[in-house]
Amino acid sequence: MVKNMNKALLSKPSGLVEQALKVNKQTTTEDALNIDYTATVGQPNCQNAKFSTQNVNVYYANNQAIHDVSLDIGAHEVIALIGPSGCGKSTYLRCLNRMNDTIDICRVEGQILLDQENIYHQKQDPVLLRARVGMVFQKPNPFPKSIYDNVAYGPRIHGLTSNKAELDELVEASLIKAGLFQEVKDRLQAPGTGLSGGQQQRLCIARTIAVQPEVILMDEPASALDPIATAKIEELINELKENFTIVIVTHSMQQAARVSQRTAYFHMGRLIEVGDTNQIFTNPAHELTEKYITGRFG
Ligand SMILES: Nc1ncnc2c1ncn2[C@@H]1O[C@H](COP(=O)(O)OP(=O)(O)OP(=O)(O)O)[C@@H](O)[C@H]1O
């Protein structure tokens, strides 16, 4: 099914998908078009929710960036968050491991449950939360340390191993899962920053995996990479979903189609539509989703 969908996406006239990414200077406003963009279309709930987010509103000082978003994220699914630039994808993503706490003017309202527990409860330690809900950023950001120490950093801080042999094993296992071990096994003491961009990103994924998270948040993880390195990251995402729940923000609709089982379309801070990736890309129910997917904004 996904293959067919990919074909459909990739067979669109060239430039169409790219146009959709440029959104939306000349877009006629939704109000003028009389399009309802206040209620979510589709099925935001999951039977096996890892995260359950209810009525989430996010503000940067007086500007509201997220409006009343309710969405579940199922265990062991890859869900893609897509939408025009500035629609709030990263802001919503950062709510899931409280990375927004690091932005002084940011305020999050609503309920966000991880395994049915409120991650914004005052007793929740954000550092421990971020070990459970890891994050991979757009630009690979290895520490200025050796490849080994990059991966060993988290397990050391969290006391995950009790001796050097165990730590060695965990570092190796994490590098294997991140698809990097074969390329670096003979130079584990070399600086992580000396790797290629794609290798650095896989190192960051290994570093995230090493603390044994349950969820991995990825904010445009391949946007700084060339097509070959991107393909490796996408293959990796497919493998990682066996063990982790993955939420990925991407500007590439092809990438969303290739890696995710569900897709959520955001527009102006609102969750417009969510559904099976196949349905979103081949038969979107909301007019705004359709306009975005087909590049017909404006
Ligand atoms: N640190 C911040 N301080 C103030 N406003 C912010 C901050 N981060 C984001 N915003 C605002 O919140 C809104 C949503 O931004 P966000 O980065 O979440 O969107 P996005 O969909 O991820 O965009 P892009 O695809 O361009 O990365 C935008 O209006 C943006 O200007």
List the helices and strands and how they pair.
Layout (H helix, E strand, L loop, with lengths): L1 H9 L5 H7 L7 H4 L7 E2 L6 E12 L2 E12 L3 E5 L6 H7 L10 E9 L2 E2 L7 H7 E4 L10 H11 L6 H14 L3 H4 L12 H14 L4 E5 L7 H14 L4 E5 L3 H7 L2 E6 L2 E7 H6 L4 H7 L5
Parallel strand pairs: 1-11, 4-9, 4-10, 7-8, 8-9
Antiparallel strand pairs: 2-3, 2-5, 5-6, 10-11
Helix pairs in contact: 1-11, 6-7, 6-9, 7-9, 9-10
This protein binds adenosine-5'-triphosphate.
Defining key terms:
4-stranded antiparallel sheet, Rossmann fold, ATP binding, 7-stranded mixed sheet, 298 residues, 11 strands, binds adenosine-5'-triphosphate, P-loop_NTPase, 13 helices, alpha/beta, disordered N terminus
Structure description:
By secondary structure, this protein is α/β, with parallel strands linked by helices. 37% of the residues lie in helices and 23% in strands. It is built from 13 helices and 11 strands. It has helices spanning 2-10, 16-22, 30-33, 89-95, 126-132, 147-157, 164-177, 181-184, 197-210, 227-240, 253-259, 277-282, 287-293; strands spanning 41-42, 49-60, 63-74, 78-82, 106-114, 117-118, 133-136, 215-219, 245-249, 262-267, 270-276. β5 and β6 (117-118) form a beta hairpin. It is globular, with a radius of gyration of 19 Å. The two termini are 31 Å apart. Adenosine-5'-triphosphate binds at residues 60, 65, 83, 85-91, 103. GO terms for molecular function: ATP binding; ATP hydrolysis activity; phosphate transmembrane transporter activity.
